[in-house]
Amino acid sequence: MSNEDRLWDALLREVERRGYTVVVRESASSADAFIDALRREIVIADRLDRRDAVARLAHEIGHLQLHSGGRSAQTPSVGLREIEAELFAYGVLVNNGIEPDRSSVDYISDWVRRIGPLTQADFDAIEARTATATRLFVQSIHTFARRTAQPDHGDDGVPLAPDGPEL
Questions:
Q1: How far apart are the C-alpha atoms of 149 and 145, rounded to whole Å?
Q2: Rounded mean pLDDT of the chain?
Q3: What residue ranges of the chain have pLDDT lower than 50?
Q4: What are the boundaries of the region Disordered (predicted)?
Q5: Which helix (H) or strand (E) covers residue 104, if one does?
Q6: What is the b/e burial string over 123-148, where b = at least 16 CB atoms within 10 angstroms of the residue's CB?
């Protein structure tokens, strides 16, 4: 199983734990993914490959983790919320062995240009919110993976090659 497939499965569990479902379907809009709060769904466009679908799902979970339940008031700007969600997704991917592609950096840069110059206080607040949320989330999915590790997996949930850990 690839890193993308393992992370997809872990993200699905987290979404379900929050009372949401993930729906992969044709998207009439240009959005690759979005949250339908009324239906409690995260919709992922079916045109995405697995890597991009995982990245978009992590981004939308970032919104749930960082901006739901009244927490959006802590980040009043749509632009800042998008930057935070993308940084969250970036951290989740990297911490699960998936190198984000250039589109992630471009997405963040585009939002920075749209909202104008950020102050040091903005950077500090973004870092504080996203670093903590990402760390706690990654720990949660890694803890679950360790508890449910299969016999052909090591303690860290990584599949074992015949001669030891996979490199």
A1: 6
A2: 85
A3: 160-167
A4: 147-167
A5: helix 102-115
A6: eebbeebbeebbeebbeebeeebeee
The total of other beta-carbon atoms located within 10 Å of residue 82's CB is 22
pLDDT at 18: 92
The C-alpha atoms of residue 86 and residue 64 are separated, in whole angstroms, by 12
CA distance 33 to 113: 22
Q: How far apart are CA 127 and CA 75, in angstroms?
A: 12
Q: Residue 49: what pLDDT?
A: 94
21-25: strand order across its sheet: 21-25, 41-45, 33-36
Structure tokens at 137: 């989330």
User: Token pair of 30, please?
Assistant: 């240009």
What lies within 8 Å, CB to CB, of 64 at 6+ separation is: 15, 18, 20, 35
Choose among 92, 94, 99: nearest CA to 138.
Answer: 92
